[in-house]
Amino acid sequence: MPVPRHDADATVAAVGEHALIERIRARAGVLPDWVTLGIGDDAAVLEPERGTLDVVTTDSLVEQVHFRRDWTLPAAVGHKALAVSLSDLAAMGAAPRASLLSLALPPDVPLAEFDGLVDGFLALAAKTGAPLVGGNITRSPGPLVVDVTAIGSVRRRRLLTRGGGRPGDELFLTGELGGAAAGLALLEASRDRATFDALDTDCVHHYEWPDPRLRCGQIVAHSRAASACVDLSDGLADAAGQLARASQTGVVVDAAAVPIHPGAAAWAARTGGETLPLALVGGEDYELLFAVSPRHRRKFLAAARACRGLVLTSVGRLRSEPGQWLSRMGQLEPLGSGFVHF
Amino acid sequence: MPVPRHDADATVAAVGEHALIERIRARAGVLPDWVTLGIGDDAAVLEPERGTLDVVTTDSLVEQVHFRRDWTLPAAVGHKALAVSLSDLAAMGAAPRASLLSLALPPDVPLAEFDGLVDGFLALAAKTGAPLVGGNITRSPGPLVVDVTAIGSVRRRRLLTRGGGRPGDELFLTGELGGAAAGLALLEASRDRATFDALDTDCVHHYEWPDPRLRCGQIVAHSRAASACVDLSDGLADAAGQLARASQTGVVVDAAAVPIHPGAAAWAARTGGETLPLALVGGEDYELLFAVSPRHRRKFLAAARACRGLVLTSVGRLRSEPGQWLSRMGQLEPLGSGFVHF
Known about the structure:
By secondary structure, chain A is α+β, with helices and mostly antiparallel strands. Chain A is built from eleven helices and 13 strands. In chain A, strand 1 and strand 2 form a beta hairpin. The N and C termini of chain A lie far apart (44 Å).
């Protein structure tokens, strides 16, 4: 079916569901050979990879809760909607295979914004090997909701879960924390991006264009050096707590060891706030937290070195005594929980 | 983790995301052995069925567009949200294996309504073998959005698609049409269900509690007697048009042959309206439309007899001449398209 031409000022309501799907299909590009059937039938059909397990996750971004249409490029919304689901696959050690995009669209969304969102999604889908194979479009009287399902695969012996940690395991974190929370705070304080310095801009980039740690998740899974893994959608405190709870252990996070994004530190210094909470309960740093047994430490560090461009930092330890603690200046205090969604 | 107790008058915002997930997990019951990992990790993990393809689909219901919270039992919303995705699997000949539920929740939704929705979803999930293995919960300032991903499997040689039809194929439809559209019209005219007669009530039931034709889809797929299949979310005109377009054929639907739900006929008679449009463009009858080559007709009818309790009716034919037509009183008129979502 030819793609109908529409004025970029047209709204999605004027274009209609079928034409919107055709616009997506026209942009979706060539599908890999494991996609038996992509966009356009009642469902997508994938050829399973021999000897692997299917890994499936879904996540959504809601306008006004997770993004503002007037603050952010539509492409960043599409990128991030896919990135947060891919981050879940990364935490399982899985390789992406396909994605589904379900949109609840206010009728006044301009076609140019729709196209931008789809393009941001498809660019990350192409880069990560998660081709868009299906989805759904419906109108909504409410906020724009972007719901993404990501599908991946992993060999059974390489599967990482939250629940495999043991007392004594060391916790290793990818990257630095607080950047995304500082980026959001910066945008809340000023929409004039021209006033942001390089560190500010990097924080905003962290917040808007998260980079799911797929490669590192797969490298560590392949090494079989980690006993458990979780991703950090809601901050380090929440992630460490989830991993410990699932592993039926206690946990201590070492405050002094938590790697802080320099832009987050600069933001905190400028506003007279504390830095650590940005890392502990500031959400949206899509990093990975691994638990590593002492006897696999060397193997893990070798795998970590292969995660090029990504520093892994030891930030704490699982232990048999129950409870979730933050160790600060030699004292234990409650770790608290993460970013609260309600 | 123990399920915290909450007053049924409490709102979902008062309960919080983690506790809501625990409530779902506590209700989700025992998982089949192909589910390696269900609710509670970063992603769900499924063991693929040897020799089959993965079939994946996503669909969503939006409050005020697809349902009204004040008209409908929460359990019906949960049921229907899953049913419409399962209907897509049915149209591919696939057997369900798992489901994911993603909710965008207004904070004032009472906990009892949340529980009701989840229970309606889980009851159908249990009945159809589509256990809930994961999902997402987020708050939203807007309407309740229920997004469902359904995952199934089918053997490659049994896969039904929209695009396999050939000129000369006969079109067969499950069930009767117009019931759901009449049910919606009845609810729009009166919310006093006590005034509905048995036919009215059956129409409303069709609208609120659609029964995905999974068994019939699988029986026909197993027989390999159909060349193509599509489900009828948006009416017969849209479905026949989609099947013909994907098969690169024309199509003629025989107006006199279209099976009409008696409640739809009664509603049309009472309101002085036409019956046929309820069937052709009235959406939400989740029936299946099969294309059947003349040389497989006997095999198809044998398979159809095995779809117990479900009548299959010949309603038209694919043809090489392009165009989508309705044959009425010996005249061809344009078939038109289906229910418009925007």
